Amino acid sequence: MATPLDLNPDRLFPADPTTRGIARTLYKEIGALPIVSPHGHTDPTWFATDAKWENATTLLLAPDHYVFRMLYSQGVALDDLAIPRRGGVPATDPRAAWRVFAGNYHLFRGTPSRMWLDHVFAEVFGFDVRLDAGTADLYYDTITDALASDAYRPRALFDRFRIDFLATTEGAHDRLDAHHAIRASGWGGRVVTTYRPDGVIDVEHEQFAGALATFAELTGEDVHSWSGYLAAHRKRRADFRAAGATATDHGHPTARTANLSTAECEALFARIVGGTWDADDAELFRAQMLTEMAKMSVEDGMVMQIHPGSFRNHNAGLFASHGRDKGADIPLRTEYVQALKPMLDVVGTERDLTIILFTLDESVYARELAPLAGHYPCLKLGPAWWFHDSPEGMRRFRELTTETAGFYNTVGFNDDTRAFLSIPARHDVARRVDCAFLARLVAEHRIEDWEAVELAHELTSGLVRRAYRL
Amino acid sequence: MATPLDLNPDRLFPADPTTRGIARTLYKEIGALPIVSPHGHTDPTWFATDAKWENATTLLLAPDHYVFRMLYSQGVALDDLAIPRRGGVPATDPRAAWRVFAGNYHLFRGTPSRMWLDHVFAEVFGFDVRLDAGTADLYYDTITDALASDAYRPRALFDRFRIDFLATTEGAHDRLDAHHAIRASGWGGRVVTTYRPDGVIDVEHEQFAGALATFAELTGEDVHSWSGYLAAHRKRRADFRAAGATATDHGHPTARTANLSTAECEALFARIVGGTWDADDAELFRAQMLTEMAKMSVEDGMVMQIHPGSFRNHNAGLFASHGRDKGADIPLRTEYVQALKPMLDVVGTERDLTIILFTLDESVYARELAPLAGHYPCLKLGPAWWFHDSPEGMRRFRELTTETAGFYNTVGFNDDTRAFLSIPARHDVARRVDCAFLARLVAEHRIEDWEAVELAHELTSGLVRRAYRL
Amino acid sequence: MATPLDLNPDRLFPADPTTRGIARTLYKEIGALPIVSPHGHTDPTWFATDAKWENATTLLLAPDHYVFRMLYSQGVALDDLAIPRRGGVPATDPRAAWRVFAGNYHLFRGTPSRMWLDHVFAEVFGFDVRLDAGTADLYYDTITDALASDAYRPRALFDRFRIDFLATTEGAHDRLDAHHAIRASGWGGRVVTTYRPDGVIDVEHEQFAGALATFAELTGEDVHSWSGYLAAHRKRRADFRAAGATATDHGHPTARTANLSTAECEALFARIVGGTWDADDAELFRAQMLTEMAKMSVEDGMVMQIHPGSFRNHNAGLFASHGRDKGADIPLRTEYVQALKPMLDVVGTERDLTIILFTLDESVYARELAPLAGHYPCLKLGPAWWFHDSPEGMRRFRELTTETAGFYNTVGFNDDTRAFLSIPARHDVARRVDCAFLARLVAEHRIEDWEAVELAHELTSGLVRRAYRL
Predict the structure, then answer these.
(1) For range B193-202, the mean pLDDT
(2) Which of B341, B346, B408 should we substitute to test contact with A (largest number of A Cβ atoms within 10 Å)?
(3) Which of C78, C124, C176 is nearest to C420 (CA)?
(4) What's the predicted TM-score (pTM) here?
(5) CATH code for the part of the protein at C53-150
(6) Which fold has domain B17-52+151-468?
(7) How far is residue C357's CA from residue B114's CA, in Å, rounded to a whole number?
């Protein structure tokens, strides 16, 4: 027998009645505000073509590494989840994959994925029974049928979700065709790109050479000389700004930065493009490029985002069989204080520069990031990220950073997602957790109730818009 | 005047009435379930001989390093606690030691030792006044008298505690006489061994040579050749399985693993047994042996437990005077992501292998262990361990791991104790803390009440039995 | 319109009514006890001369790096806050600076600075409206007027604050003139010094040579020989003890200690004073000197305080323009277990020695510091320090240390402040947070109510007085 699915209006609020009452009041203020999503990884082609999605599995299961990593960890084969092998086709039909997912849905108890998915099921598709083995087909058919209707096309959902701003992320070697098509279409949705140059910076990535060739082609610069390479970045940053971008994004293994002389840069770059680099060179080049990007941000006003600390594709067997982005990225201990100093020696006192720092290593929140952001004018704290974008993770972020960095050195919420349908769910969780945190401060007489209202608006909207210069 | 000792039925439940009510309901479901103890260090001789224990001090004080480390830290001499010096006899009579302990019992306020001891005093010995200087003799006499009765023999207490399964731990060079005697006795208690080969793997341990000699004798293998040494492990693992073992246990200084070629292994092993090793060799050999043990677990199905990160015998003066295991083991920062990769490159995608990871470094829960266990099919998270086997420690474990690894990649509770009488107390604390955590999730509408009931059973029994293959 | 300022009597107590009730009862017991401040950085000249302070800005804003770092982080120029440049004068008049501060006071929401300042404003100056742009001049004038009255001279406030004991900190090369003047004045306030020899130990400090010259002059020892240098320390420690000091204080970049032979010490020292040292020598010399200081503490009974882990003056641009101590000190990851072993090998089992350990790296509380302090007789845990001297920081300190180290291996609260007026506010926050923590233990039946009363007194007074030998 199916069990009811019912999103409780008090979910994520503390049980204590006084605190819950305050949280409710705060949430009433900001729960329905439009969504500002300044950092994410949705596919701009969706909004360019407004094509219908195909079925429940290809939309909700196969692309979501949060979901299939958990199933894989419990012994489910990716083949049984319709996850394609390298260059191959899914080994299972999508309905069979959905049934496997549904039959294992209890594994997500206590995880944010469960909360996001239930929100999508209830709010986007109108389910009032829970997903389980018994309702697998009902879910699959209902979702797949809905996706065939116009109301579930990307642009319709964008409007229904009340998204005010949505940033995607493209590589420095991306032609931005989808973004140009969005603009040319006359559609009013604000979907803009973000400049992510990792592909032409990380020489250890297997596609570096190809990316660099495209980078040369798109800019007409001699990207094999240091000065030409920098000029190419400047051109592409301008292209991205012309397509609406206000920010850059940098996903490096570490937070290391460098401050080399021009001669040293030229010598290093010659080894990088000459193919004579070693791992230390690759790391040093990424480090120097963060400083170069910061200097360009001083010039052109783009907000810089640094996301270090992930060991990519940790599972060698899975990487061989299924390739990248299969839920096998694992956080590493990450140091910021020594690592960022070379860059900060160059740009640290710039008051018109904004660098947003993220981490997968919560031990640095109170020790390193809050003290840095609570001092340097150019530094701000990005929200709890990836594995920590969860009720407990967001609570720890506030508890560990607020006392040293305050609220005003933070930048609101990022959903950081490829899962378009989960965007409202993710913002809703963040808003509820922020209201719960503020409610505790009010209940303990650490701030006044009217201050909490102001702060709730800031965390939901004001800080985001100002930090990302929207 | 003595103060009352009264175990409150709501202890460890949150004060908020709604949450406490839910916790009570959950605890009613599982509080009285039989104990499954898959990892611990009780002495199997107790159950083989069923001999009576001698007195309160030799049973409860002198062997418990949790207890005497705290007294020592406050300036009490170990001599005054009847802790023997190297090769010597206790400097104090047991009653005098007990009085010192009783007079300092306030030092344990806020510690799990206090909670476990009070549970033992109230539930096992029936005390209704607290231990202090004034009740020291009452306690000593009552306990010592009780121990002289048949009702307090090991097997009687085993039954009274409703222990369904109890694992002990023996070295690879142990003859398993006690376990054979238990089986031969016809007693029905399920007490089984665990294969802990550290003594024949850690060449830096002062008793390595002797252990290796016994290992050779017991297996008839040429343990000075790499292939013979591995064959000896296989034989002994089979001996342990024949004695009921389902698991192995590995307590290394770090989590490092290695994946050397056979030729490299042979060369390294030649240095180890040839006495020409250095500290790097010793570490590399331990690292390689974790991978070898994992490969043997793939063959024979034994569950592998890895417990890294303790600096043993940190206090040089105390080690000189009193020897090992005197409460001077201190946790170290421990890295897992890089460390485990060589082993995982070999066995990571095995779906029938189970490796349970423990840590003394809580900073890795959310950053490293939960992401690893939330991805790799073979990895599971052991419970909060040693210093962290405490109400706050267990709460942090759940808060820091659940959102990424879920509940189903954990393995229930381990009491990990030498203190047999405290086993029910320790399981009771764990059950209460789990119920409190689940109650908060229910109160905040993050899971349903019926899901919490299922999970409470899983954490107490289902996950333990499945993970340890009982 | 001005908003009311009203210090709620229940501030910082948990919202749950049961727990709050217990916290209130505990706070009634200890909230009004005299202040014991064994570690801080107020200026003894204030108490020697009893001169009036000048105005609100020079007393409350310009010297407080907690305050101006936050304003600076949000783009306010230090020039606009009346913070002097190197050798220069403030670029702004104090009233203008105060207005900038007032207009940005919302930035401090959720920080301890806000809580301390509001306490000072309400309790010391009697304000009943909040500081903001509209009340900036009212605040400036009221405070500045008050400071012109005798009731606001340092000694009068010392009495009004009910300070029972106040330690300041002076360098090994300080003449202690202010302390001698306090004693000579016949004033009854207990203000004593603390021996902080960093200036003559840290050869990397730019003023080392000058400090060493004064050190020689004050002691008459040949401070360029190892034995003379040690003798000079002994003399100055005696001078400090004669001036009332009971403690030493050591602020090193790391917790590293060393245990060199005399010959090695002599060779190292020759490089230090001969100017042929490198960074490794500087670090090794600091390490060795911690062990030397510990040995002298065994001789003379002075309590030793070790505060490692701050990267000083991280902002190169600001250091160039404004010099040291401008809010740019950033915590570093800090290791204790390996670092302290050489020193502990020498003094670890001394039962009459007290070494108090502090950290800016909270990840070591549960992993390293609590296990060390819960074992070694000579080690105690200092309170949550600097960035962590805050409600959440102090709560984490108790939650992370109590279960392993207990309460009795801690030493009560340190305000550690230069901001004299904030001392009552800081102690009040600490007392409230401790009462809240104890109340939770009582509400969850982990300790008895009468034990919590005893512990509240210990944390506020008993442990402080005993640890610092007052």
Answers:
(1) 98
(2) B408
(3) C124
(4) 0.98
(5) 1.10.2020.10
(6) TIM Barrel (3.20.20)
(7) 25
